[in-house]
Amino acid sequence: MADVLTCCRSSSSKSHIMLYANLNSIVATRMIEKLSETGLLDSVHDEESIVYLATSKGIGFVTKYVELLQLISSELVPIESKTNNPNRLNGLNF
Questions:
Q1: Over 70: is that where the pLDDT of 33 sits?
Q2: Interatomic CA distance for residues 30 and 34, integer angstroms
Q3: CA 94, CA 49: separation in Å to the nearest integer?
Q4: Which domains, from first to last, does the chain contain?
Q5: At residue 11, what are phi and psi to the nearest 5 degrees?
Q6: pLDDT digits (tens, 9 = 90+) for 51-61
């Protein structure tokens, strides 16, 4: 979720979100729907496409998420969560 919201700091298409967060189309669609339902993500429709943008609530979520990550020492974070997604911790600066 944090990767999707981070990607959407600026307007992002679904395909851009999929590439950035390393998600397939089905997972990306579900995540976009859930984030939109909870008010963390907003969609902007124009004539030809839909782009997504993190709301202030979504940006606040990522900020708190990053703060929590900083509280956890590296010894407590499982190895698979460090290596699962190369974008996981990159660019989460808000």
A1: yes
A2: 6
A3: 27
A4: 2-83 (1.10.10.10)
A5: -55, 130
A6: 999 999 999 99
